[in-house]
C-alpha cells in the first residue's frame, strides 16, 4: 500500500463523510442488493404532486442527507475537561525505569581436563566439545587456555564493551578475588558470573558449588551465600553443570523469593541454569559437552547443527558447511546476518507473546547482554528439552519450546541453508533473502484488517520493530505501524512497550522523503499520549525534522497540522526547545517578543474567519499567548528596540480587536478560547479595566452607557454583541459586608467561595477552584508584576462588554469562564436569580427545585434521540438542576446565543454583580487564570483513530439504511394516501404542564412525542402507552419561552434543536434564525459553526412564521405580523424573490406558513390569525389560487404534512380542522362535553409525523393528543 493512498484516501474525507452523509455513497460502498431493490420499488411507487412519476433522484430528495454537530469537538464539551498527553499515565509505563549495562564478566571454568568427577559415569561415545574445542586434541593446560579464550570471544559478540576475566580451575580464594575485582570495577553496573562445572561434582543440596584446592587434590565446596556476598547486586549467574537447579533453589531460599515471584527481592539477581536439580547434562555425541553455553553464546551455529539432523537437507549438509556460512552476524545482507536477524525477531516475538510486559521489559529491553542471553535461553530450552533436559531461570519463564514461531524459524533456516552449498562453492554467487519478513508483515496486515483492542494483540509487533532496520521493508513497516498506532492509546502503549521508540527516533535522522509523512503521523500518535518523549526529541535534535517538514510543500494540510502539533508538544513546558536568548521568565515573554517581531498577529488574524472551528480556536489561542501579562522583562533594557512601547501597544490593540471580532463565534470551542484570552488581557490590564467596569456598574452611571462605544461597531464575522450592562447591587469600596434580602456577602472573594461561584454550572476547565478569583490586582502593591502600558479607553470599554457577553453565554462552561474573567476585573456574581415556578401546585414526580445560585442562563440544549430503540437513551447526565428523570445520559452538543441582549433586561439571567476592591490576599497569580483547553483537545483529537472509520460505523450505517427504507416506504404511502376522515384519537394524556403546551414534535422512528411548555420545561413521552420517558429544563430562566423544536440529523444520531425567543428552521447544513425584535434573518452554517449571512427582511414588521423547503435547499418563506408573505432564496445575491399579501382583507399576523408537499418549490400554504388559509403559487400568480375560511378570528396553529396532501389548523375555540390540498375538509376535532367523548382545550400547537399520517396537538390546558385517520386503531 502506498503512503499516498493511505493518507489521501482517508485524510481527504471529513469525519462526517465517514458515516456516509450521502446515500449514493452508501450504496456504492455497500453492495446491498435488497436495499437497492427496495429503493427502486419505493422510488417507482412514489410520485410528486403535479407529476405522474418520479426518478430515484427525485425520491431521495425527500430525505435529509447531511450530518452536523457530530464531530469530536461536540463530544461532552460541557461535561469534561480534555486531558493533555501523559507524563506518567498509561503509555509512560513503557519507558524502562533504570537502564542497565553489564560492565564486567567473570568466566570460571572448572574443567580439570582428563580427570572425570567421581559422581559422573560417561557413556561412549560421549559429548566432548567445550566452546567448540575438543579438549583432548591438545595438552590439557593449553586446551584450558584456548577454551577460556574462546568463551570470552563468544560473550564479546553480545557485549563488546564489557571487561572479561577468565579464571580456569580456580581455588576459593581466586574466585573471591575475582568477584571482588569485578564488583569494584563494575561499580553499580551488572556483573555476569559464568560457571562451568563439567570437571567437578554436582552442586550440593546445601547450595554449594565445587572448586579446587591449590594442588588440585581435593574438591572444595563454595557456598552460594558467600559467592552472592562477593558479587552483590545487580548480577546475573550462568550455571552450566549437572543438577544446576540445586543452585537456583539455594538462591531462592537464601533470598526468600516466593515461588510465584517474577521480580525477586530488592536484590537484582538473575539466574540461568542448564537443568533442574534432578537432571544431568546430555552426554550424546550429537551435542557439545557445554550445550547450554553453546546455545547462550553461539545460538546460530548451535541451532543449525541441531536442525541439520532433523531437516530434509540432512543428506546434502554437514557440520563443516555450517562452520563456513559466509558473512557476518552484523551484516543483514549476508546469509549469516540474515539468519541472526530472523533468529532475533523470532525469539523476541516468542518472549513478547508469552511474558508479562513488565517482565519482558526487564529481561529483553533493560540490558543488552541480558536480553541476548534470554533470547538464546529460549533456544537452549528448545534444544535441551529434546534431550530430556530442562533449563531453568529466575525469574522463571513459561515453556516456550513448542511455540509455533519456531516453525517459522525452521522454515526460514531451511530456505537459507538450501543456498549454502552454492554460496560456499561460488563466493560471487548472489544471496537470495528469505521471504520471512515479507510474510510476517502480511500477517500483521491481515491482523490490522480484522483485529481490535478486544482481540488478541498482534504477535508480529516485535518483528515490525526488527523490520524497521531494513531499508527494503522499512516503508511498508512504517505504514502498517501507523495503522496500528491509529487504533488507540492501547496500541501506542503496546508499540512503545515492545521497544519501538528508539527506532522511530533514529529514523528522524534520515533524509528519505517518502518516509516524512508517515513518520510525522507516527510521532503525532506517540506525542498525543506521552509528552515525556519531548526530552528525547530535543536532545537528539528531532524537532528540526518537523520544522523542515512544515517548510516542505508536498504535505497535505492535515499532515502539516500534525507536524505543527508535534512541535507544540515539544515546546510545551520545555524551555530548551524554545529558540530563546537569555533566561526565560514567566509566560515565556522572550518567545512573545519574537512572535511580535515576526508579526505573528497578522498571520493569525485571517484564520479567525476560516471555515474550521478548530483552526479558529487555535488562532484565538495563539493570539492570546501574545497578550502582555506584565513582567519585569523590559526593565533592564529601556530604550531597546525589543521593548518599543508604541509597537507593543499597536500589537496589543490589533490582537484585542481580532479577539473581539469572534466573541460571538458560532463554535463553543472558539468562544471558550476567547474567554481564556480575554482573561489574560484582564490580568495584564487589570488596573485600567477596573475603573471602566466600576463606571459601568454604578447605578447612577447608566447614562454613560449611551456615550461609550459599543461592540456593535466592531467589524467582524459575527453579529451584534450586547452593549449595555444593567444596574448593579452596590459598589463596595472597602472590605465591609454588603447586605440585601437578608443575605450577607463580602467583597473579598476568598471569604465566600460558595456564594461567589456556587453555581451548579460552574466550570472545571481551570485547575483551581473558583474561590481563587482575582480582585484588584494592584492594591497595596501586593502583586509583583509590572503593568503594561495603557491602551485606548474605547478598547477597554469594548473588552468589558465582551467579558459580560461571555459571562451570559448559553454554554455553562463558557459562562463560567466569562465569570472568572469578570472576577479578575472585580465584578463578582453574588446573588443569582432563582428559577421561577408558576402556580402553587407541583406536578407529581417533579419537585420544583429552587437553585438560588444557578448562575447564568443558557438558551439551548442538545440531546441525543436514538429513535427506534426503546426506551430512549441519553448520553450524559442533564446540565439542568437535578430532578427525577426517566432517562439518563443527556448531553449538550452546542449552545449559542444568536441575538443581542441587554444586561439590564429582567430575563438576562445575569446575577447581581458586586464590584470588589478589597485588598489582595496574595493569591492573585497567573495560575488562577482560566486555562485553555484547545491544546489538550488537540491531543484528544490526534489520539483518536484518524485513518479508519469508527468501530460502530457498520452499525450506524445499518441503522441509517433501515431508517431510509422505512422513510421511503412511508413517503410513498403518504403520497398515495386517501384520507377520508381524520378525527380518530389514538392517544391522549395530561402532560402536567403548568403553562400549557407551547410547541410539540413527533419523533420519526419511535412512538415518541416531545413537548415544551412556556416555562421551557421539555418533556418526552411514549405515546403508545402515555408513559413519560424524560423531563428536563431548556434553561433555568423561563421568561423567554421555547418557540420551536426540531430534529437535526434525522436519519442518524438525532439531536433535538430547541430555540428560545426566535423563529428557526433547519435545512441542509444551514440554520435559519429570525428574531422577533430584529428586522433581519441570519443564516448559520452548522458544519462550520459560522454565520454565513445576515440579510434584511425588507419589511418594517416582525416575522411571525418561518419555513424552509425540505427538498430545495436555500428556499424559505416568511410570514409577517401585517399578514404579508415573502419568499427568499439564500442562493441569490438579492435574497428576496417575491412579496405577496394573501391576507389582504386582514392585518392580523401570519400564524403559520409552509411549503406544500412534493417537489414544487413555489406552492406555499399560509394561515393568519383571522382564520383564513391561503394557497399560493408564486410562479403563475401572486394571488392565492385557493382560500379556506377555516376559523373566524381565532386561528392559533397551522401544520402542513411533509409528504401527505393534508394540512391542519387549530383554533382557540377548542377546534381542529383537517383539509386536503384541494380544500376539502377531511375531519373536525372539537370539544364534546359528554362524559365519554374526547376533550381538547384551546389549541396552541400542531405538528404532523414526518412519515406517517399522524397529527399531534397541544393545548393550553397541558393536554396532548395524537390523531389518525379512521383506519388506525385507538391505543
TrEMBL record:
<dbReference type="InterPro" id="IPR001680">
    <property type="entry name" value="WD40_rpt"/>
</dbReference>
<protein>
    <recommendedName>
        <fullName>Raptor N-terminal CASPase-like domain-containing protein</fullName>
    </recommendedName>
</protein>
<dbReference type="GO" id="GO:0071230">
    <property type="term" value="P:cellular response to amino acid stimulus"/>
</dbReference>
<dbReference type="InterPro" id="IPR016024">
    <property type="entry name" value="ARM-type_fold"/>
</dbReference>
<comment type="similarity">
    <text>Belongs to the WD repeat RAPTOR family.</text>
</comment>
<dbReference type="InterPro" id="IPR015943">
    <property type="entry name" value="WD40/YVTN_repeat-like_dom_sf"/>
</dbReference>
<dbReference type="InterPro" id="IPR036322">
    <property type="entry name" value="WD40_repeat_dom_sf"/>
</dbReference>
<dbReference type="InterPro" id="IPR011989">
    <property type="entry name" value="ARM-like"/>
</dbReference>
<dbReference type="GO" id="GO:0010506">
    <property type="term" value="P:regulation of autophagy"/>
</dbReference>
<feature type="compositionally biased region" description="Basic and acidic residues">
    <location>
        <begin position="29"/>
        <end position="43"/>
    </location>
</feature>
<dbReference type="GO" id="GO:0005737">
    <property type="term" value="C:cytoplasm"/>
</dbReference>
<feature type="region of interest" description="Disordered">
    <location>
        <begin position="29"/>
        <end position="52"/>
    </location>
</feature>
<feature type="domain" description="Raptor N-terminal CASPase-like">
    <location>
        <begin position="99"/>
        <end position="252"/>
    </location>
</feature>
<feature type="region of interest" description="Disordered">
    <location>
        <begin position="743"/>
        <end position="777"/>
    </location>
</feature>
<dbReference type="GO" id="GO:0030674">
    <property type="term" value="F:protein-macromolecule adaptor activity"/>
</dbReference>
<dbReference type="GO" id="GO:0031931">
    <property type="term" value="C:TORC1 complex"/>
</dbReference>
<dbReference type="GO" id="GO:0030307">
    <property type="term" value="P:positive regulation of cell growth"/>
</dbReference>
<dbReference type="Pfam" id="PF14538">
    <property type="entry name" value="Raptor_N"/>
</dbReference>
<dbReference type="InterPro" id="IPR004083">
    <property type="entry name" value="Raptor"/>
</dbReference>
<dbReference type="GO" id="GO:0031929">
    <property type="term" value="P:TOR signaling"/>
</dbReference>
<feature type="compositionally biased region" description="Polar residues">
    <location>
        <begin position="762"/>
        <end position="777"/>
    </location>
</feature>
<keyword id="KW-0853">WD repeat</keyword>
<dbReference type="GO" id="GO:0009267">
    <property type="term" value="P:cellular response to starvation"/>
</dbReference>
<dbReference type="InterPro" id="IPR029347">
    <property type="entry name" value="Raptor_N"/>
</dbReference>
<keyword id="KW-0677">Repeat</keyword>
Amino acid at each position: 500500500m502506498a503512503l499516498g493512498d493511505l493518507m489521501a484516501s482517508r485524510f481527504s474525507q471529513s469525519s462526517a463523510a465517514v458515516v456516509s452523509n450521502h446515500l449514493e455513497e452508501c450504496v456504492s460502498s455497500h453492495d446491498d442488493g435488497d436495499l437497492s431493490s427496495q429503493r427502486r420499488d419505493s422510488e417507482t411507487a412514489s410520485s410528486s404532486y403535479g407529476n405522474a412519476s418520479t426518478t430515484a433522484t427525485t425520491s431521495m430528495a425527500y430525505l435529509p442527507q447531511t450530518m452536523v454537530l457530530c464531530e469530536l469537538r461536540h463530544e461532552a464539551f460541557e461535561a469534561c475537561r480534555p486531558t493533555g498527553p501523559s507524563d506518567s499515565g498509561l503509555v509512560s509505563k513503557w519507558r524502562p525505569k533504570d537502564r542497565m549495562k553489564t560492565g564486567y564478566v567473570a568466566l570460571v571454568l572448572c574443567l580439570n581436563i582428563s580427570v572425570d568427577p567421581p559422581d559422573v559415569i560417561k557413556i561412549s561415545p560421549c559429548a566432548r566439545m567445550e566452546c567448540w574445542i575438543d579438549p583432548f586434541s591438545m595438552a590439557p593446560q593449553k586446551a584450558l587456555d584456548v577454551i577460556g579464550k574462546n568463551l570470552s570471544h563468544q560473550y564479546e559478540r553480545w557485549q563488546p564493551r564489557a571487561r572479561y576475566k577468565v579464571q580456569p580451575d580456580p581455588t576459593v580464594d581466586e574466585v573471591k578475588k575475582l568477584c571482588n575485582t569485578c564488583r569494584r570495577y563494575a561499580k553499580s553496573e551488572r556483573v555476569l558470573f559464568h560457571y562451568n562445572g563439567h570437571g567437578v561434582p554436582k552442586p550440593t543440596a546445601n547450595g554449594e558449588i565445587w572448586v579446587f584446592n591449590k594442588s588440585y587434590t581435593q574438591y572444595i565446596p563454595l557456598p552460594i551465600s558467600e559467592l552472592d556476598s562477593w558479587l552483590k547486586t545487580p548480577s546475573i549467574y550462568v550455571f552450566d553443570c549437572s543438577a544446576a537447579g540445586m543452585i537456583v533453589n539455594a538462591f531462592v531460599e537464601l533470598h526468600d523469593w516466593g515461588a510465584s515471584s517474577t521480580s525477586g527481592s530488592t536484590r537484582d539477581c538473575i539466574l540461568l541454569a542448564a537443568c533442574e536439580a534432578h537432571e544431568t547434562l546430555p552426554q550424546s555425541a550429537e551435542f557439545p559437552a557445554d550445550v547450554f553455553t553453546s546455545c547462550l553464546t553461539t545460538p546460530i551455529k548451535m541451532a543449525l547443527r541441531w536442525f541439520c539432523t532433523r531437516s530434509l537437507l540432512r543428506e546434502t549438509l554437514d557440520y563443516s558447511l555450517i562452520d563456513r556460512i559466509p558473512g557476518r552476524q552484523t551484516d543483514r545482507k549476508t546469509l549469516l546476518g540474515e539468519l541472526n536477524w530472523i533468529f532475533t525477531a523470532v525469539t523476541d516475538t516468542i518472549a513478547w507473546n508469552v511474558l508479562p510486559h513488565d517482565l519482558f521489559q526487564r529481561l529483553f529491553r533493560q540490558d543488552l547482554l541480558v536480553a541476548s542471553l534470554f533470547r538464546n535461553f529460549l533456544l537452549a530450552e528448545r534444544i535441551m528439552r529434546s534431550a530430556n533436559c530442562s533449563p531453568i531461570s529466575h525469574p522463571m519463564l513459561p515453556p516456550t519450546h513448542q511455540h509455533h514461531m519456531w516453525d517459522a524459524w525452521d522454515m526460514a533456516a531451511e530456505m537459507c541453508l538450501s543456498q549454502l552449498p552454492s554460496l560456499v562453492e561460488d563466493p560471487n554467487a548472489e544471496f537470495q533473502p528469505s521471504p520471512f519478513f515479507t510474510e510476517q508483515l502480511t500477517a500483521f496486515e491481515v491482523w490490522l484488517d480484522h483485529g481490535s483492542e478486544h482481540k488478541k494483540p498482534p504477535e508480529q509487533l516485535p518483528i515490525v520493530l526488527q523490520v524497521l532496520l531494513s531499508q527494503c521493508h522499512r516503508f511498508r513497516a512504517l505504514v502498517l505501524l501507523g495503522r496500528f498506532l491509529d487504533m488507540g492509546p492501547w496500541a501506542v502503549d503496546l508499540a512503545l512497550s515492545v521497544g519501538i521508540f528508539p527506532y522511530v527516533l533514529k529514523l528522524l535522522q534520515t533524509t528519505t522523503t517518502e518516509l516524512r509523512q508517515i513518520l510525522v503521523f507516527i510521532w503525532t500518535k506517540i506525542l498525543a499520549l506521552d509528552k515525556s518523549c519531548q526530552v528525547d526529541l530535543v536532545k537528539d535534535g528531532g524537532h528540526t525534522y518537523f520544522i523542515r517538514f512544515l517548510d516542505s510543500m508536498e504535505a497535505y494540510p492535515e499532515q502539516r497540522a500534525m507536524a505543527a502539533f508535534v512541535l507544540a508538544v515539544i515546546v510545551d513546558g520545555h524551555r530548551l526547545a524554545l529558540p530563546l536568548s537569555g533566561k526565560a521568565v514567566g509566560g515565556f515573554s522572550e518567545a512573545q517578543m519574537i512572535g511580535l517581531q515576526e508579526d505573528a498577529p497578522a498571520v493569525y488574524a485571517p484564520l479567525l474567519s476560516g471555515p474550521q472551528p478548530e483552526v479558529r480556536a487555535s488562532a484565538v489561542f495563539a493570539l492570546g499567548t501574545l497578550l502582555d501579562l506584565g513582567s519585569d522583562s523590559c526593565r533592564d533594557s529601556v530604550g531597546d528596540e525589543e521593548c518599543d512601547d508604541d509597537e507593543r501597544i499597536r500589537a496589543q490593540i490589533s490582537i484585542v480587536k481580532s479577539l473581539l471580532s469572534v466573541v460571538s463565534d458560532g463554535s463553543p470551542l472558539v468562544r471558550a478560547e476567547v474567554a481564556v484570552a480575554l482573561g489574560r488581557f484582564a490580568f495584564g490590564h487589570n488596573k485600567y479595566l477596573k475603573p471602566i467596569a466600576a463606571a459601568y456598574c454604578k447605578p447612577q452611571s447608566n447614562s454613560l452607557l449611551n456615550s461609550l462605544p459599543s461592540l456593535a461597531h466592531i467589524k467582524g464575522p459575527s453579529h451584534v454583541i450586547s452593549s449595555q450592562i444593567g444596574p448593579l447591587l452596590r459598589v463596595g469600596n472597602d472590605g465591609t459586608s454588603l447586605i440585601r434580602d437578608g443575605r450577607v456577602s463580602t467583597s473579598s472573594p476568598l471569604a465566600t467561595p460558595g456564594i461567589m461561584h456556587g453555581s451548579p454550572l460552574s466550570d472545571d476547565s481551570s485547575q483551581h477552584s473558583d474561590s481563587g478569583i482575582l480582585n484588584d490586582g494592584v492594591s497595596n502593591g501586593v502583586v509583583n508584576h509590572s503593568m503594561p502600558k495603557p491602551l485606548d479607553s474605547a478598547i477597554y470599554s469594548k473588552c468589558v462588554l465582551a467579558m459580560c457577553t461571555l459571562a451570559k453565554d448559553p454554554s455553562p462552561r463558557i459562562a463560567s469562564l466569562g465569570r472568572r474573567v469578570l472576577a479578575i476585573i472585580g465584578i463578582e456574581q453574588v446573588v443569582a436569580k432563582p428559577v421561577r415556578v408558576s402556580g402553587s401546585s407541583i406536578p407529581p414526580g417533579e419537585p420544583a427545585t429552587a437553585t438560588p445560585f444557578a448562575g447564568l442562563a443558557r438558551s439551548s440544549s442538545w440531546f441525543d434521540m436514538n429513535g427506534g430503540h426503546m426506551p430512549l437513551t441519553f448520553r450524559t447526565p442533564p446540565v439542568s438542576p437535578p430532578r427525577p428523570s426517566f432517562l439518563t445520559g443527556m448531553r449538550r452538543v452546542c449552545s449559542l446565543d444568536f441575538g443581542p441582549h441587554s444586561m439590564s433586561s429582567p430575563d438576562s439571567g445575569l446575577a447581581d454583580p458586586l464590584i470588589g476592591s478589597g485588598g489582595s490576599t496574595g493569591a492573585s497569580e497567573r495560575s488562577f487564570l482560566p486555562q485553555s483547553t484547545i491544546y489538550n483537545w488537540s491531543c484528544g483529537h490526534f489520539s483518536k483513530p484518524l485513518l479508519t472509520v469508527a468501530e460502530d460505523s457498520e452499525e450506524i450505517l445499518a441503522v441509517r439504511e433501515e431508517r431510509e427504507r422505512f422513510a421511503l416506504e412511508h413517503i410513498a404511502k403518504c403520497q398515495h394516501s386517501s384520507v377520508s376522515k381524520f378525527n380518530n384519537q389514538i392517544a391522549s394524556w395530561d402532560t402536567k404542564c403548568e403553562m400549557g403546551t407551547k410547541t410539540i414534535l413527533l419523533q420519526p422512528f419511535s412512538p415518541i412525542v416531545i413537548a415544551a411548555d412556556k416555562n421551557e420545561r421539555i418533556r418526552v413521552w411514549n405515546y403508545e402507552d402515555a408513559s413519560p420517558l424524560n423531563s428536563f429544563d431548556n434553561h433555568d430562566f423561563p421568561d423567554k419561552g421555547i418557540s420551536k423544536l426540531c430534529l437535526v440529523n434525522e436519519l442518524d444520531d438525532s439531536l433535538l434543536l430547541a430555540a428560545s425567543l426566535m423563529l428557526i428552521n433547519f435545512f441542509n447544513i444551514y440554520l435559519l434564525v429570525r428574531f422577533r425584535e430584529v428586522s433581519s434573518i441570519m443564516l448559520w452554517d452548522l458544519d462550520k459553526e459560522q454565520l454565513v449571512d445576515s440579510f434584511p427582511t425588507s419589511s418594517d414588521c416582525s416575522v411571525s412564521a418561518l419555513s424552509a423547503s425540505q427538498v430545495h435547499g436555500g428556499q424559505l418563506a416568511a410570514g409577517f405580523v401585517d399578514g404579508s408573505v415573502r419568499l427568499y432564496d439564500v442562493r441569490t445575491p438579492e435574497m428576496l424573490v417575491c412579496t405577496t399579501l394573501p391576507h389582504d382583507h386582514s392585518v392580523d399576523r401570519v400564524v403559520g406558513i409552509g411549503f406544500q408537499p412534493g417537489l414544487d418549490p413555489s406552492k406555499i400554504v399560509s394561515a393568519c390569525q383571522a382564520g383564513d388559509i391561503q394557497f399560493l403559487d408564486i410562479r403563475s400568480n401572486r394571488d392565492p389560487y385557493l382560500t379556506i375560511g377555516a376559523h373566524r378570528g381565532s386561528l392559533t396553529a397551522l401544520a402542513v404534512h411533509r409528504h401527505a396532501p393534508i394540512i391542519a389548523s387549530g383554533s382557540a375555540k377548542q377546534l381542529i380542522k383537517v383539509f386536503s390540498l384541494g380544500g376539502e375538509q377531511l375531519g373536525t376535532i372539537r370539544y364534546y362535553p359528554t362524559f365519554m367523548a374526547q376533550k381538547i382545550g384551546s389549541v396552541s400547537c400542531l405538528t404532523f409525523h414526518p412519515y406517517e399520517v399522524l397529527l399531534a396537538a397541544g393545548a393550553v390546558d397541558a393536554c396532548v393528543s395524537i390523531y389518525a385517520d379512521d383506519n388506525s386503531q385507538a391505543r
